[in-house]
Structures are given as structure tokens and as C-alpha cells.
Design a protein that fits this description.
There is one protein chain. Strand 11 and strand 12 form a beta hairpin. The chain is of the alpha/beta class and 672 residues long. The two termini are 38 Å apart. 44% of the residues lie in helices and 11% in strands. The chain has two domains: 197 residues, Tetratricopeptide repeat domain (Serine Threonine Protein Phosphatase 5, Tetratricopeptide repeat), CATH 1.25.40.10; 368 residues, Alkaline Phosphatase, subunit A (3-Layer(aba) Sandwich), CATH 3.40.720. Strands 1, 2, 3, 4, 5, 6, 7, 8 and 9 form a nine-stranded mixed β-sheet that branches. It has a four-stranded antiparallel β-sheet with strand order 10-11-12-13. Strands 14-15 form a two-stranded antiparallel ribbon.
């Protein structure tokens, strides 16, 4: 998203002239089990691309060694092929219908949930998480129970200091996790490390790029394994023999199977099968469990090993009996993906997977015999009506327990209920209403849109060396074939914006609105483009609409607050920046904005404190450096003023700040 530097004009105009309740059990209430827990989740990892699962064309020595030292589950499946809802199932032991995280974006894990981190925190464990993708940012609720939640992504570079990359490399995440680990003092700890590298685009670093040049997806996995060697070594050095290590993927990757190139659309084993292994105290060595297990079974299994009770209302089952050859009742696994419905405008898919069958409820339903047809190529639904009837009943029981209904109403939940109350106290919820979707299993079958998926893949796949013009052509062709798909408007509009065709992008977004595609993201994009054109009133109106759809969109809110300042609406700007801090207390942009508000109020002390906090939180936020420098200059602190101006000039984009840089240089010269 483009951050428009209008706020800097506000301060420049003002200063350059003048300068020229719930009670929970705690560790003190019980004796704490001395074991530590390290959980690694690897995004988009197919188990059949690991050595320990029989794949011979890759080197994954660290994961292979972990599997040999403990238990490997040969047939583990996720509940959904999407990162946020799958992680919610892993850490709550609940199906998506229960924890209510149903898609990537648009849903958060509510603070009333009791995920693993919260349970362990309440029982005396130190807890920390280090995640590698923006889709698991704390705003989505996954920080619940973590003392430390590191979700800081790297900055793209000059001119984009208000933005973050959507992911960070495994090496960076592991290094941060190891630093935290080395500072632990002996109290039991829970460490979650999430690695994102196998996710598209496949671009392995260094030697892995060359070694796996014909299989870049494998190269990303091999690189991830290398970094896990560093993590596992640090864990063993810190607390030898006292730590359970568990590794599992959130979902797989289609790699063109069934006409899908990534994940999220279909419910086949390519994306549902996951890697799952664990080792450490209480886990036997060299065991391979063949029966189907599920991601929801992870929570009760770990709690059993830690001698803690599982919460009520979970669907998962402890797998500890399988360690010694026993059977756990995990035969039936509920599956769903709402991505086709919510993001593409097609029908959602639901399914039931067993050791033998995969049933998919779709406009054109499917049934596969996994024993005789493991690649799920022969639909045998006509031959097994009794099985279909049984699976339909099981699906209805999950979707609507006690009502036996096949439909479900789903509402987006972009704001936690506690934060909703804060919003109301700030007068910030006028017009806000969650988006509702009726899930009936009807509509366009995703199988009938594989041509669109192929066009999207060709347009977006990083390894395909095509021109911008060709990419636009492919996306336009996809949109022509499927004009009701929300995602296609965003992707094509983004390409227009990248190539400087803002008017075409704006026209496209307005066409989307006319066709009934309406949500916060669309209004935010229109607002950004209006702001670039100098249409502040229209931009504010669009940002306000975006806020009604998604009050937790911090980047858009920052632009809205700054636009308010430009129009002299100081109270509105202050309200927005305070709301941003309510959702993200470490938002440097919000502190910078409140510093600008304080300037408008002539409260220079508060302004300086806000700008100082902003640069401490984010040293790359160049506007805050300049603002702070001006205030130090006003206060006669020439040395600190010089330092802040120099920091601004060293980091500011010559294009974005072309009108400001000469003035800062002039001020710096006067301070020599």
C-alpha cells in the first residue's frame, strides 16, 4: 500500500517557518512441570517433499534426524489449506466452525479463545512467538497468551518506511528466536517459531538456488531445514533432555495437481496432508504412526505430555496412545475452505476425510477411494451412495450441531470484542457492520474455474519471466472469464498501479463497486489513489468507508488520520491515531501522528515525546526523524537536531521527499 507523506507537510508548514475479566490459574497456584516446549510450524510444506517421508530428491537432515529421534505421523491432515485458520486449529484443538477463523484475512482469533500459549502462560511458562508472515500479525489474535510476540517484518527500502514486506526469511526469524532462547533463566518456556519460506514465490537463497534450480520449492524447504539446524542446536544446548520439539506444517501445496498451483481452493491431499513429528521427553524413539491424525489433535497431545488438562469444547484427541501402538479415535476429519467463496466469489468446499475415503461437498460432489486411488483421480460418488449419506450427516453435525442443517451463516470478525468496546468508547463504530455470508454449497464449482487459476498462476508466478504488459493481459483475460471474482480486481489494479496507470486502476476499482464487489480493501485502494491526485475530501470519504468494513487496517487508518490533519480536523485525527495504538501499541506511525496532533495543539513537549517514541520503535521512519529534529532545533538542542536531520537525509527517498530534502539540508547547514 502506498503511504502518502502528507503529514510531513503539516509539520513543515508549522515549524520550518518558525525554525527558520476472567480469573485464571497461575504458576503460583500449581507446581509447574519442568519440561520446555518448542513448536515449529512450516508454511506450505508438503510432507512428500521431505526425506523422512520418503522423498529422495532433497536433503533435509535436521528434520530427518528429529523424526528418527521421536514419532512421525505418516498420515497427518490439516483442517483447512489456509494459514490463519489452520494455525487456529493447531493451537486451539478446534475445527474452524468453532474457533471462527475461516479465511486468510477478515477473521481474527477472539480473545475469549484458550489457545496453547494462554494455557501454558497461565500455568507458569514463559511464552514467546516469532512469526514470518504478515498473515499471522498480532492484530489477527494469535498473540493471545504470548509474553513476547515478534511479528516485525523487514522494510522494503527507501520511500516505503510506512510499509513492511509480507514475510521474512527463516534465517532472520530463527536468529531472533535463538536470541530470546539464550536469555531464558531456567523457567519452563514455550517457544513457537513460524517459518514461511516454502510459500510462493519460490526463491531459495544462495547455494540452495543453484542446487535446486530445477525445483525451487524444494530449495526453499532445504534452506528452511538448514535454519532449523541452528534452532535445534540452540535448544539442545540450552536445556539438554528437557525440551519437547514438535514440527508440523499448516498445509501443503498443490504444485499443479488438480489444476491448482498453490493452495486454498481445493480439498485434495496435495494441500491437506501435512508433516507432523515430535521428539523429546515422553516421546518414544523411532515410532511411525500410520493411522490418520489431524491438526486439531496437536493441542491435547502436547498438553497430555506436559501433564496438563485439555480445555473443554475441543474436537482434538490426544495421540499419546498411538505412541505405543494403540488407536486414537481420529478416523473422521472435517475439512473446509471458504477461500473460493469469500475471496473468489465461487462456492465454498467442505469435506470429510477418513483413512479410506475423501468426500468433498461441492456443487459437483466428489468421493475418492484413497486406498486404491491415492492421487484422487477417479470420482466414485455414484457407486457409493451409502457412504455419501453418512458423510453428509457428519458434515451437518459439524456445521450445525443439533440442527442437521447443511447451510451456515458466517460473519467476518475483523475486530476482537474487547477492542470493539474500545472502539465504541472512542466513538469509532458509526456505520460499522460485519460482512455476512450464507454458505449453502451452491454457486460456481471451483473445478470449473481451473482456467482462471492457470491464468493467475502464469501472471503472478515469480519464476516466469514475462513483461508487465503480458502480465496485465493475462489478468485481464482472467477477469473477462470471471468478472465477479473480487481478487482479480485487486490483482489487475495492482499491476496498473505498479506501472503508473493510476487512472486505469481507479476506473477498474469503481467498476468493481458497480458490480457489487465491495469491501474495505477496495475502498482503501480508491482512497490512496484519490490522495495521490490531491482529492483529500474524496480520499477521506473512502477511508471512512474502508474503516467501516475493517477498523483494524492500520495502514489505511494512518493515511486517514493524516488526511484529517491536512483538512484541519485535529480531533478526528487524534481519535484515529489513538485507535491505531489500541490495536497495535507498537505502531510508530501512530505515535508520529499523535506527535503531529500535539503540534497542532501547540503542545511541544508531548510532540517531542511522541516523535522520540516513534523513532525508537522504528528507526526507519524518516518522517519522525525530521519532526524530532525540528523540535530539537526549536529547543536549541543543536547536536540532537543535527543527528535527527542526518538520519532523515540518510534514509529518505529522493523521489518521495524531493520537496522536503532541500529544506532539511538548509536547516542542517545552519546548525554546523
Amino acid at each position: 500500500m502506498t503511504r502518502c507523506n502528507t503529514g510531513i507537510v503539516v509539520l513543515a508548514a508549522l515549524l520550518f517557518g518558525s525554525c527558520a475479566s476472567q480469573t485464571t490459574q497461575t504458576g503460583s497456584d500449581r507446581s509447574v512441570h519442568p519440561l520446555n516446549l518448542v513448536v515449529v510450524t512450516i508454511d506450505t510444506l508438503r510432507p512428500d517433499h521431505l526425506g523422512c517421508y520418503g522423498y529422495s530428491r532433497i536433503e533435509t537432515p535436521n528434520l530427518d534426524s528429529l523424526a528418527r529421534r521421536g514419532v512421525l505421523f505418516e498420515t497427518a491432515v490439516a483442517q483447512t489449506p489456509l494459514t490463519p485458520p489452520s494455525h487456529a486449529s493447531i493451537f486451539t484443538g478446534q475445527y474452524p466452525t468453532v474457533h471462527h477463523v475461516r479465511n486468510t484475512g477478515g477473521f481474527i482469533l477472539q480473545s475469549s479463545a484458550r489457545p496453547l500459549a494462554r494455557i501454558l502462560q497461565e500455568n507458569g511458562w514463559n511464552t514467546a512467538a516469532f512469526v514470518s508472515s504478515a498473515v499471522l500479525k498480532r492484530v489477527f489474535g494469535f498473540s493471545n497468551g504470548f509474553d513476547t510476540y515478534d511479528d516485525h517484518m523487514p522494510k522494503p527500502g527507501k520511500g516505503n518506511e510506512f510499509r513492511e514486506d509480507p514475510e521474512r526469511a527463516a534465517g532472520d526469524t530463527v536468529a531472533r528466536a535463538v536470541d530470546w532462547l539464550n536469555n531464558q533463566s531456567g523457567k519452563p518456556y514455550f517457544l513457537w517459531v513460524h517459518l514461511y519460506d516454502p510459500h510462493l514465490p519460490y526463491n531459495p537463497p544462495g547455494a540452495f538456488k543453484e542446487k535446486y534450480k530445477n525445483a525451487p520449492y524444494d530449495g526453499e524447504i532445504a534452506y528452511t531445514d538448514q535454519q532449523l539446524g541452528t534452532l535445534f542446536g540452540a535448544v539442545e544446548k540450552k536445556a539438554p533432555g528437557k525440551t519437547i520439539i514438535a514440527v508440523l506444517s499448516d498445509h501443503g501445496e498443490s504444485l499443479s495437481d488438480h489444476g491448482e498451483y498453490t493452495h486454498g481452493v481445493f480439498l485434495y491431499d496435495s494441500t491437506l496432508r501435512i508433516a507432523f513429528m515430535m521428539a523429546g521427553p515422553g516421546v518414544p524413539v523411532g515410532v511411525r504412526v500410520k493411522q490418520q491424525v489431524r491438526s486439531v489433535d496437536f493441542l491435547p497431545t502436547v498438553l497430555k505430555l506436559l501433564d496438563l488438562k485439555s480445555p473443554e469444547n475441543i474436537q482434538g484427541i490426544s495421540l499419546v496412545p498411538t505412541f505405543s501402538g494403540g488407536i486414537a479415535p481420529t478416523e473422521v476429519s472435517y475439512e473446509e475452505t471458504l477461500y473460493p467463496k469469500l475471496s473468489m466469489g465461487w462456492s465454498e468446499l467442505r469435506g470429510v476425510r477418513t483413512n479410506k475415503w475423501m468426500y468433498i461437498r461441492a456443487p459437483k460432489p466428489e468421493l475418492y477411494d484413497l486406498v486404491h486411488d491415492p492421487r484422487e483421480e477417479i470420482n466414485v460418488i455414484q457407486q457409493h451412495p451409502a457412504e455419501v449419506q453418512k458423510f453428509e450427516a457428519q458434515l451437518n453435525n459439524v456445521i450445525s450441531p443439533g440442527r442437521n442443517s447443511s447451510s451456515e451463516k458466517v460473519e467476518t470478525n475483523l475486530v476482537d470484542q474487547r477492542m470493539m468496546d474500545q472502539l465504541k468508547s472512542l466513538g469509532y463504530l458509526s456505520g460499522f457492520a460485519p460482512r455476512s455470508y450464507e454458505l449453502t454449497g451452491q454457486g460456481t464449482d471451483p473445478k470449473d474455474r481451473v482456467d482462471v487459476l492457470r491464468l493467475l498462476y502464469l501472471a503472478e508466478e515469480a519464476q516466469v519471466n514475462i513483461s508487465e504488459a503480458k502480465r496485465v493481459q493475462l489478468l485481464q483475460q482472467a477477469l473477462d472469464e470471471d468478472p465477479n471474482s473480487p481478487s482479480l480486481y485487486y490483482q489487475l489494479g495492482s499491476e496498473f498501479e505498479k506501472t503508473g496507470r493510476q487512472e486505469q486502476a481507479l476506473k477498474l476499482y469503481r467498476v468493481a463497486l458497480q458490480r457489487g464487489v465491495e469491501n474495505g480493501r477496495l475502498h482503501s485502494r480508491i482512497a490512496d489513489l484519490c490522495l495521490r491526485k490531491g482529492n483529500k475530501d474524496e480520499a477521506i470519504a473512502e477511508y471512512e468507508k474502508a474503516a467501516q468494513f475493517n477498523p483494524s487496517d492500520v495502514e489505511s487508518q494512518t493515511n486517514l488520520g493524516t488526511a484529517y490533519l491536512e483538512k484541519g480536523r485535529v480531533a478526528d485525527a487524534e481519535r484515529v491515531f489513538k485507535w491505531i495504538l489500541a490495536t497495535d501499541e507498537d505502531s510508530a506511525a501512530a505515535d508520529n501522528g499523535l506527535g503531529l496532533v500535539a503540534i497542532q495543539k501547540r503542545d511541544l513537549t508531548t510532540a517531542r515525546d511522541r516523535f522520540q517514541k516513534a523513532v525508537e520503535l522504528d528507526p526507519e521512519l524518516v518522517e519522525a526523524h525530521m519532526n524530532l529534529g525540528l523540535l530539537y532545533e526549536m529547543a536549541g538542542d543543536r547536536e540532537r537536531a543535527r543527528a535527527q536531520f542526518e538520519a532523515f537525509l540518510a534514509k529518505a527517498s529522493p523521489v518521495q521527499y524531493a520537496g522536503i530534502i532541500p529544506k532539511v539540508k538548509q536547516e542542517l547547514t545552519s546548525l554546523q
